[in-house]
């Protein structure tokens, strides 16, 4: 199946060139840097690079883009874990779980694990792409809008499954997010809704400022009201350092343990990542939600432990879930290249830029690229592996440096966070209205936390609401308004069944829980 | 230097108040701080800025608004234009993707930008369409055209396994079929929708024979064509190029007067007996009211750029059809094109084809009903949880004053938004940081450090390193 000649040619092109190594390392540093700043996404890192791509040869340009994306997605974990602001939407799924470790002073532990899992996910994705690329691309071609509709519904169900606390509250949060997504000019109808005549609302609520507000700004406000007591002593610097060196050994042990114990779940998360990544429009954010939910689901089958050991056990479990989610989001990056290469249909916004860059180099993506440019295709796979190998040292360095953030006194850190929230939400679209969106969402997040409602489903609702409604309207229009159009094709029936099973098991479970509480 | 000494004297003399609340209310302290802050700011701004006097145009970075998202065709052209304009004008040109609202956002922002010549827009055909559909008050009259760059004619695509090989086949199928044919290529009411409905109407067929499915963008529409969800795709050749070259789809005709050099074997509609043409276009514009001497500088730069071999090579390799026109030709083209769209978009055929099967408020109403169902169990679980002591209630400080600080933070951010376009990013951020540091009870040294270091550093990081255009104010930054 693998053409050895082309493969060795590709390997020579990738690994034997000094300039490619240099570009990959520079791109890794840049990717980590951009990804770690809330408001700047992996897409933006790549978009800013396009003018430079003009001067590079195809291999170098692709190497830079792949490395940037992989590193930026990992680096999104840094502010997620340290400040509770997701750096990229892909980290939003596990923001609360990860931040809980930071509160205990174990930020480094989560970050290192996330890094290793990202690298594993990335390499897994590259290998899966190499083995199954052509076949998977065909599978992606079977998905029409109706299948996407079911897929997005499943994604939303995942947000409810993973949320802490009562399910009804998670559903309400989700509905709130979905409602926000309907604000603006409806893509399906081209009609303004809920805009109150404000021109800036025509483009809707942009989800990156919303996400920064819901997680970052709300944290600042909460701290001002609740955790303001200055009497709360910070751990002395010395002990914090001791803990971090102590936990380095611990994390190594933990990572080794994970590699042995969780082979199957790593495979599963990697698979979820690749499969979701290659569906156009369903990028690494959905991959990470679904993998996180799947991981939670599997854990619920394990017996619960009570007492002190129970707490250790629940920590271990949440680490496992975070690991699975980071594996999936990096694996999905590779998956998104499959439809891009085979059909020239972008799997996400990054590969959309990649197609542009390839065409700029007179390389047209399409099935013939596998015949005519096979070495190039192999180089792309190998570049994925190289990028992830470079990510490991660069990521460790970034974790080391960012570790100092927790040492900064609150009185300095919080103004800085606010400045980052403000500048980050402005940066994406250069719009001051987005800053107000961020602020409003910060206040909303504050209110939600005080009402003990989960904030993460709001974000997923905002992200998925638009596509979900569009796919629903498209499916119904194609079927002339007949609701049976949603379950006409075999694939859509399969996905609909999966959705019904998920919701059904959730309902049964919550009834059981209520019964148990009643007795 | 004198001002720095003054600053030092202040810091030596002043007593620092530890409690932020007391500080907020003590007038004397606030006054002292303000005086100290102003002195320090003057000192630093003198050191850093030099003198930001307004030299020749352009003397600072330009912003190029792209109304569509990163990665698309318009974005690719915008980034190429930015690179070349940078060479022509000698200042950085930053691309801003002001996306959303089907082009409303970007086109409105470009037209409403301050007319100083520092904001350009890479406008697309939607500038001719949105105001006719009542979606935007902005039209071509709000802009000063600088130069037309490209025109891409619409084309009709079918799946390789389809039975239709020519326009006549499709026309016959449209006339015969009882069920409408599903087609897409862009959102309902978009350029390709207008192109297809215009053609159908011209053939004398009823507009109900085509069921336009609103799919955002050509790429997902082609994916839908491959998946078998729709029968026809109407979009431009470069958007479909990869799949066309791969033989996965077939192009039945080009809605132009002449064949495209990008696909010379595709016949035009006119060759097949249908006199129908419609193209999208992309061009550079600036808002109305820019001083004429600045417009002249920009026009000359755009003209050189668009006629350069480098630009031609880029357009060729991307499959875009170059169509260069200078400012006066472009102005004329815009008004001509505007009249054509007024006719097409106002025609009963087009209006009728936009009536949706699913009403716009269908989805929000579903959400509302679900919300009502879930409110009751959520409230009940709220009551159950409330019996346990929450963290918030454990807090001993229950005085209303603890709400003051979050309110100050919120007001500070609002004040930042209100003022930063006038006084500039760095000054506004410095004021914001200073206020926040006080609210959070920083020590005097910390306040000074945060105020004086954070704002310039953030500016360096975002504006210089990452090329994000931040608001520009009094001091030049």
TrEMBL record, chain A:
Keywords: Membrane, Transmembrane, Transmembrane helix. The keyword Transmembrane applies. Residues 22-460 form the DUF112 domain. The chain crosses the membrane at residues 20-49, 55-75, 113-136, 142-163, 170-188, 194-215, 270-292, 337-359, 380-399, 411-428, 491-508. The keyword Zinc does not apply. It comes from the Bacteria. This is Tripartite tricarboxylate transporter TctA family protein. It comes from Rosistilla carotiformis. The lineage of its organism: Bacteria, Pseudomonadati, Planctomycetota, Planctomycetia, Pirellulales.
TrEMBL record, chain B:
Residues 354-471 form the DUF1468 domain. Keywords: Membrane, Receptor, Transmembrane, Transmembrane helix. This is Tripartite tricarboxylate transporter family receptor. Belongs to the UPF0065 (bug) family. The keyword Lipoprotein does not apply. It comes from Rosistilla carotiformis. The chain crosses the membrane at residues 361-383, 403-436, 448-467. It comes from the Bacteria.
């Amino acid at each position: 199946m693998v053409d050895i000649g082309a493969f060795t040619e590709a390997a020579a092109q990738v690994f034997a060139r000094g300039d490619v190594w240099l570009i990959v390392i520079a791109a890794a540093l840049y990717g980590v840097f951009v990804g770690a700043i809330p408001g700047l996404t992996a897409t933006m890192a790549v978009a800013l690079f396009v003018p430079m791509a003009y001067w590079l040869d195809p291999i170098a340009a692709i190497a830079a883009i792949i490395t940037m994306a992989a590193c930026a997605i990992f680096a999104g974990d840094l502010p997620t874990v340290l400040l509770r602001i997701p750096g990229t939407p892909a980290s939003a799924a596990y923001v609360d779980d990860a931040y809980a470790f930071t509160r205990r002073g174990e930020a480094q532990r989560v970050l290192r694990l996330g890094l290793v899992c990202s690298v594993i996910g990335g390499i897994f994705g590259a290998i899966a792409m190499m083995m199954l690329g052509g076949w998977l691309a065909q599978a992606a071609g079977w998905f029409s809008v109706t299948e996407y509709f079911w897929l997005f519904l499943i994604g939303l169900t995942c947000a409810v499954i993973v949320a802490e606390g009562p399910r009804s509250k998670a559903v309400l949060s989700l509905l709130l997010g979905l409602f926000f997504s309907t604000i603006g000019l409806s893509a399906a109808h081209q009609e303004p809704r809920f805009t109150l005549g404000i021109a800036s609302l025509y483009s809707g609520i942009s989800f990156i400022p919303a996400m920064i507000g819901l997680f970052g700004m709300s944290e600042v406000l909460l701290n001002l009201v609740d955790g303001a007591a200055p009497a709360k002593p910070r751990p002395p610097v010395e002990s914090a350092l001791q803990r971090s060196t102590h936990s380095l050994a611990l994390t190594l042990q933990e990572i080794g343990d994970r590699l042995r114990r969780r082979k199957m779940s790593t495979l599963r998360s990697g698979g979820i990542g690749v499969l979701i990544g290659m569906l156009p429009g369903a990028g690494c954010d959905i991959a990470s939600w679904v993998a996180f939910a799947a991981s939670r689901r599997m854990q619920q089958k394990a017996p619960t432990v009570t007492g002190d050991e129970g707490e250790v056990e629940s920590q271990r479990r949440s680490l496992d879930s975070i690991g699975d989610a980071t594996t999936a989001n990096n694996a999905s990056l590779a998956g998104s290249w499959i439809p891009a290469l085979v059909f020239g249909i972008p799997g996400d916004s990054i590969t959309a830029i990649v197609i542009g860059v390839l065409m700029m180099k007179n390389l047209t993506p399409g099935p013939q690229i596998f015949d005519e440019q096979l070495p190039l295709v192999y180089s792309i796979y190998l570049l994925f592996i190289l990028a992830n190998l470079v990510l490991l040292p660069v990521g460790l360095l970034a974790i080391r440096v960012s570790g100092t953030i927790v040492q900064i006194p609150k009185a300095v850190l919080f103004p800085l966070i606010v400045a980052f929230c403000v500048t980050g939400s402005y940066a994406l679209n250069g719009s001051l209205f987005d800053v107000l969106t961020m602020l409003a969402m910060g206040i909303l997040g504050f209110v939600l936390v005080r009402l003990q409602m989960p904030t993460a489903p709001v974000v997923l609702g905002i992200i998925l609401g638009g596509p979900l409604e569009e796919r629903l309207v498209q499916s119904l229009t194609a079927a002339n308004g007949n609701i049976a159009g949603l379950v006409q094709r075999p694939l859509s029936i399969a996905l609909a069944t999966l959705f019904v099973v998920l919701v059904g098991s959730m309902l049964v479970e919550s009834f059981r829980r209520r019964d148990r509480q009643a007795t | 230097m004198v001002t720095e000494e003054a600053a030092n004297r202040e810091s030596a003399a002043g007593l620092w108040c530890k409690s932020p609340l007391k500080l907020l209310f003590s007038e004397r302290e606030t006054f002292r701080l303000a005086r100290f802050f102003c002195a320090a700011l003057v000192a630093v701004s003198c050191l850093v800025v030099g003198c930001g006097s307004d030299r020749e145009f352009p003397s600072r970075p330009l912003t190029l608004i792209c109304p569509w998202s990163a990665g698309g065709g318009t974005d690719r052209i915008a980034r190429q234009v930015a690179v070349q304009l940078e060479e022509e004008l000698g200042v950085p040109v930053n691309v801003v993707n002001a996306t959303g609202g089907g082009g409303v956002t970007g086109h409105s922002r470009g037209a409403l930008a301050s007319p100083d010549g520092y904001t350009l827009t890479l406008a697309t055909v939607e500038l001719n369409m949105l105001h006719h559909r009542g979606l935007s008050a902005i039209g071509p009259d709000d802009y000063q055209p600088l130069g037309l760059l490209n025109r891409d004619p619409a084309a009709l695509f079918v799946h390789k396994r389809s039975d239709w090989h020519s326009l006549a086949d499709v026309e016959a199928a449209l006339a015969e079929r009882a069920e409408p044919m599903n087609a897409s290529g862009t959102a309902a009411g978009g350029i390709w929708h207008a192109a297809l409905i215009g053609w159908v109407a011209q053939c004398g067929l009823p507009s109900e024979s085509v069921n336009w499915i609103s799919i955002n963008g050509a790429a997902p529409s082609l994916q839908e064509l491959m998946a078998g969800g729709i029968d026809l795709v109407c979009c431009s050749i470069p958007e479909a190029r990869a799949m066309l070259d791969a033989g996965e789809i077939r192009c039945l005709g080009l809605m132009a007067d002449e064949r495209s050099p990008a696909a010379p074997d595709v016949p035009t509609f006119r060759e097949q007996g249908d006199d129908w043409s419609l193209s999208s276009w992309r061009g550079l514009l600036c808002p109305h009211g820019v001083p004429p001497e600045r417009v002249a500088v920009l026009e000359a730069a755009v003209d050189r750029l668009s006629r350069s071999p480098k630009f031609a090579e880029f357009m060729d390799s991307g499959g875009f059809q170059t169509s260069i026109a200078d400012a006066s030709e472009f102005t004329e083209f815009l008004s001509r094109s505007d009249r054509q769209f007024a006719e097409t978009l106002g025609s009963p055929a087009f209006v009728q084809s936009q009536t949706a099967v699913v009403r716009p408020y269908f989805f929000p109403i579903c959400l509302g009903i679900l919300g009502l169902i879930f409110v009751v169990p959520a409230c009940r679980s709220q009551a159950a949880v409330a019996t346990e002591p929450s963290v918030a209630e454990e807090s001993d400080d229950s005085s209303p004053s603890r709400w003051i600080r979050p309110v100050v933070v919120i007001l500070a951010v609002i004040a930042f938004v209100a003022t930063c376009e006038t006084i500039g990013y760095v000054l506004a951020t410095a004021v914001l940081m200073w206020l926040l540091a006080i609210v959070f009870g920083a020590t005097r040294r910390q306040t000074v450090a945060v105020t004086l270091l954070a704002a310039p550093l953030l500016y360096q990081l975002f504006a210089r390193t990452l090329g994000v255009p931040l608001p520009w104010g009094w001091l030049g930054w």
